[in-house]
Amino acid sequence: MKKRVLITAGAAGIGRAMAEAFLADGADIWVTDVDEAALKTVPSSIRATRADASNEEDMARLFGEIETAWGGVDVLCANAGVSGPTALLEDMPLKGWRECIAVNLDGAFLAVRYATPMMKAQKKGVMIFTSSTAGLYGFPNRSPYAAAKWGVIGLMKTAAMELGPYGIRANAICPGSVEGPRIERVLEREAALKGTTRDAIYEGYASGTSMRTFVEARDVAAMAQFLASDGARYVSGQVIAVDGHTENPDPKV
Ligand SMILES: NC(=O)c1ccc[n+]([C@@H]2O[C@H](COP(=O)([O-])OP(=O)(O)OC[C@H]3O[C@@H](n4cnc5c(N)ncnc54)[C@H](O)[C@@H]3O)[C@@H](O)[C@H]2O)c1
Questions:
Q1: What are the Cα distances from residue 243, in Å, to 56, 193, 207?
Q2: C or N terminus of the chain, fewer CB within 10 Å?
Q3: All domains of the chain, ordered by start, with CATH?
Q4: Residues carrying an active site annotation
Q5: Does the beta carbon of 219 sit less than 6 angstroms from any atom of ligand 1?
Q6: Which of 169, 177, 222, 172 is nearest to 83 (CA)?
Q7: What pLDDT digit, counting tens, does each position of 18-77 carry?
Q8: In this structure, which residue's CA is closest to atom 2 in ligand 1?
Q9: DSSP secondary structure string, the chain?
Q10: CA nearest to 207, candidates 253, 145, 143, 241
Q11: Which residues pair with 86 in a beta bridge?
């Protein structure tokens, strides 16, 4: 039977790379996203639904549709996340804090909340959470993002413990800075805040890794493929960075 893979925020970026990687493996894929235009670019062989990962009604409806169409789900990629505001703690707006926590953390929670009964009934399943290297260290000017991504790891570890007896595995991937439009927006915001250039911020981030690099979405997707595979059948409760090895999370650009 084909693997049934659900990816939240799968119409673009890392989630899209995951969808393409699992598709190449011959899996059935279902992606969700809030961006209708991006959803229209998804190949017709992939099911694509508009659903806000942080909205319970959307997620409940989505899982109802999955139950009807697929009767279950084998792999959940709880991937939705937004970068949130860039500001010092004392300037951080509560609204921006809450929006960041809502998508990154409530979004991961809702996906687990609704996938769990299906996976328990099947007595198997794999959950893959997209955290971040921001979930491994502090992150000056990005407090809601760091707090949410640490929270995702706590959620994942709890899921691994509660669900392990049912044959369900849960792991988190922590990407470093991923080349693409999202990180460009982050670099521009941080450059404006610090009164420097995008290139200086880019070099600073890259120099904080042992390999002096950013990563690509396909590198994160390859890790998700491995975690979903039989080769990882006893890998659970783990936090795996795909980041060229962060050695200095705050290079003080
Ligand atoms: N890009 C990076 O450098 C980086 C680094 C570490 C971790 N991450 C994490 O990886 C995940 C994916 O990031 P990305 O870089 O692909 O992001 P992205 O900004 O490229 O967005 C990918 C997709 O997410 C969708 N999306 C946004 N809010 C959503 C919501 N509420 N519900 C459903 N979909 C939503 C967007 O419409 C977009 O199509 C996130 O959890 C992010 O925090 C990204």
A1: 32, 24, 12
A2: N
A3: 4-242 (3.40.50.720)
A4: 145
A5: no
A6: 177
A7: 999 999 999 999 999 999 999 999 999 999 999 999 999 999 999 999 999 999 999 999
A8: 178
A9: ---EEEETT-SSHHHHHHHHHHHHTT-EEEEEES-HHHHHTS-TTSEEEE--TT-HHHHHHHHHHHHHHHSS-SEEEE----------GGG--HHHHHHHHIIIIIHHHHHHHHHHHHHHHHT-EEEEEE--GGGTS--TT-HHHHHHHHHHHHHHHHHHHHHGGGTEEEEEEEE-PBSSHHHHHHHHHHHHHHTS-HHHHHHHHHHTBTT---B-HHHHHHHHHHHHSGGGTT--S-EEEESS-BS-S----
A10: 253
A11: none
Would you say the CB of residue 132 lies under 6 angstroms from ligand 1?
Answer: yes
| 91, 243, 198, 15 alpha-carbon torsion, rounded to 10° | -80
What single letter denotes the amino acid at residue 176? G
Cβ–ligand 1 contact at 79 (below 6 Å): yes
- What is the atom index within ligand 1 of the atom nearest the CA of 149? 43
